[in-house]
Design brief:
heterotrimer; A alpha/beta (about 325); B mainly alpha (about 240); C mainly alpha (about 400); A: about 325 residues; alpha/beta; 14 helices; about 35% helix; globular; B: about 240 residues; MetI-like fold; about 80% helix; about 0% strand; elongated
Chain lengths: ~325, ~240, ~400
Amino acid sequence: MIELKQLTRVFGERTAVDQLNLTVNSGEICALIGTSGCGKSTTLKMINRLIEPTSGTVLINGEDIRDQSPELLRRRIGYAIQGVGLFPHRSVYDNIATVPRLLNWSRQEIDARVRELLELLKMPFETFAHQYPHRLSGGEQQRIGVARALAARPELLLMDEPFGALDPLTRERLQGELKQIQRMLGITVILVTHDMEEAIRLADQVAVMDAGRLLQSGTPQALLRNPREGFVSQLVGGEDRALRLLALRRVDELVQPLDQLSFEAELPTVSSGMSLRDALARHLWYGQNCLRVVDDAGNTLGGISLDAILNAEDQRP
Amino acid sequence: MMRSLAVTWVGTLAPLACLLYLAVAASTLEPLLMPLAPEGAPTIYARDSFINLIGWHLMLVFIAIASASIIAISAAILVSRPAGRDFLPLARSLANLGQTLPPVAVLALAVPAVGFGAWPTLIALFLYGLLPIFENTLAGLSQVSAEVKEAARGLGMSPLQRLWQVELPLALPVIITGVRLSIIISVGTATIGSTVAAKGLGEVIIAGLLTDNLAFVLQGGIIVALMAMVLDALLRKVEQKIRRT
Amino acid sequence: MPLVSYQVPGASARAGITFDRLGATLSTLTLIALVLLPVVTLQPNRILPGEGVELEQLARYPTFMLFLGLLILTLTGVTVVSRHWIRLGLATLTLLALVVATGSIASPLLDNRGAFARLALGSGFWAIGLLLGLMMTDAVVKMGLSARWRLVIVTVCLGAIVSVLSSGLWDHLSLMLEYRNQERFWAQGGRHLLLAFGSVLPALLIGVPLGIGCHRSAALRTFMIPLLSLLQTIPSLAMFGLLMIPLTLLTQAFPVLNELGIRGIGAAPAVLALFLYSLLPIVSNTAAGFDGLNPAVIDAARGMGMNARQRLWQVQLPLALPVMLSGLRIVVTMNIGLVAVAGLIGGGGYGTYIFQGLGQTATDLVLLGTLPTIVLAFVAALVIDTLIEFSRKERG
């Protein structure tokens, strides 16, 4: 559990972060969101002491981070940033091995870890380990950045707009991969972003910041349903909120037996893992009131009606 | 604003004042320099007036650099046009190689070619002056962004109009930097030119070296150094002015 | 490194025949030089000016005819052949043929001309040699060869020339006669390098930390950089002279310094002056190298828990190295040239020959000082270019 208590940072005249209180549960992803200059990056950097707080404390599993030297602390915490910051003079292998080497791991341990991580990220060791960063695509560089951050098996990963510089398709794919890896490893992630879609898609907890203050924090659903007046509701998007809520829910929540529905013989399909938002888009695209729901193997599970989706928010679980 | 203006001018005016003082009234320093001269030897260089020597020195530098500027800038423009493209790679690598060529070597090689006197010095100053100007002009022209050139084309400017109204004005500060470098190097090389009998301030230093007269060495050295500083400061001012507009 | 990114024109017409305007220009100039300028001159003695030997007289000798044949082939080649390695090979062979031919015609031409007569290399030799060198350079540039291959080519060419010289083929040429007079030629070379590099090491030890300091502190930078540029504007001869004075006064006050080899004239003011000149390129390039580092990389290094020392040695220095090395290139080539000037104040090195030669109007002695100085500077620059290339490898 990460606890930020009354965290404050003042730069000269300007208060960048103002008495911020936030608790992030272990194994969850927390997104800090806000416009640029709202203090979200400063908050993140106070967690690994790249910036020292003016006042307030940060506890990681009840332990004050100031009990440890900043270098030792940072070696325990993964850190991935926008622009990646890969070392251009070191190969992919050496980049990933950076923190394990700082921690004096044995050569075998490092070797095994690099192979494991590249495999986790679906980047074949033989192809990538001895490449230099400039030969990689933006998406590949960002993956290596994440691998480097995860190298020493940190329990906490800090990410500062990690996908900001990528094209929308690559960004979406990497977001999916990150979520998968995070679930698999069970690590805690604190992520800074200005992209509401990203926060909703990835986070278990979204914390909205403005002018150095925490305005509201909660699950994406909670935020979308009951945003505070003003900045938060502006950020979560008035008209789009319904669509964003649908994006958080899956088709299999609303599957009905096919015989309850009036349908035509050859229905277009949706897969059960799709979000309700995507299913709605398909309804509109095919001009159908009902679609056939299939699982990954292609077996029909039932159907989903347009009405069910439109009423989804009233009959939420 | 006033204060910073005053501060920046001190850098130019102070050495200039010292230079003028030494040029006209060096004899007033005789008591100070006396211990440095050998017994019975003159303390202040008297074979020629300092004003004269400064004049010769500057004239050599300006003739050489003015002609070098004309040639080097035209050459750089030429090789950066489509018509001169064949010559560009060689010209680039020559400019690069030329930087490794010591000025004193150029001077020494000019003597067998044209004999002693002002000519070998002029030739060496000219040849060595070409490099920084050529290289900076080329760099200045190539740093003009492709979008700006594209826009100029889109506005219907002819190639000549693009060169005069867009490329050269944008490259000018970098070109002036090249000219300044050339002038500073030339002031130094012209000093050595006195070894091949070119008139200039170097002869004061060399006379001092030959007769073991440290007083001469000091006068010559300080005057040349001051002159280089004044020129450098003035040319930097010109550069700043152009950059600002 | 402006040479590397050049796109070979007409790469599509690779195998074929082209018309190369640069090659045509160089060929025309070569022909003009061959006709108008004497390849060799006959001097009655060491000092008196020589008289050019007519081309038709030279054409009687088979080795010279061989050279002429190769020259025509090369001139045609650089004008119409599009393969650059063929051009390079032809020009290199022709240059060697020129060296061999001028050597082999010396003793027959000098027959019956008296003991003091000398055969000197004429302006034609230097002009043709230079033009062939330009053809080689152009070919090398257009082949896009990396610095290490350029270094190999230059080493091979220099080796070939040195072996021709040491085979005794040039022994009757005035330049080699002058060389035989100077027993300390190679020792002077050693001294030249020692003086040139002797100031680089202390300049690096002081300049690199100062450069890093300038990167970190704007106040230090606004003080240091103008000061060091001011030092740089002082002409070399003036700087040597101005440093002689305090050094002379010091050694008069403390004779013990004299015993340590420190004197007002000679090596001490030279090394001190070169040290002062070296600081600006080292400091400003170090600062520029550090300024140019990607902030994300430094941020990442900090975020991963590298301490200041680890960041400096493992990240900042290796990444800033190419820019720092190009500062070193400036320093080394500049110093090699300035050591020649130090010959004037008795510093030793090849400058001694240059100024002795100028004093005696002995052209060959001037050349004996100038040519090695140029070769040293050129090779040093190429070696550093190779180092820069290695330090940049793989990082794009």
